[in-house]
Amino acid sequence: MLRLRQAQQFPESGRRVPESGHADVRELFETPYRLVYRVRLEAVEVLAIVHGRQALPSWTPS
């Protein structure tokens, strides 16, 4: 997945996910998928990969 590599190399390139309520949760789109991830100090944590037409699962990153 090209966007996963982009998130690893340029973690701040994704837009913030407004419905997450967390500034460190970002997303990138690779049609038709939405990659939702969290920027950590030394890593990118993938939180969800969902179809773009689906709502995000109900979760709260801790």
Describe the structure.
This protein has one helix spanning 2-9; strands at residues 15-16, 25-30, 33-39, 44-51. It is mainly β and 62 residues long. The protein has one domain (2-51). Strands 1-2-3-4 form a four-stranded antiparallel beta sheet, with helices on one face. Strand 1 (15-16) and strand 2 (25-30) form a beta hairpin. The longest helix has 8 residues, at 2-9. The model has no long low-confidence stretch (mean pLDDT 86).
Give the end-to-end Cα distance, rounded to a whole number of Å: 26 Å
Low-confidence stretches: none
- Mean pLDDT rating: 86
- Contiguous helical run count: 1
How many beta-strand segments? 4
Summarize the structure.
Helix content is 13%, strand content 37%. It contains 1 helix and 4 strands.
Give the SSE layout:
Blueprint lengths: L1 H8 L5 E2 L8 E6 L2 E7 L4 E8 L11
Antiparallel strand pairs: 1-2, 2-3, 3-4
Notable traits:
single chain; mainly beta; 4-stranded antiparallel beta sheet; 1 helix; 4 strands
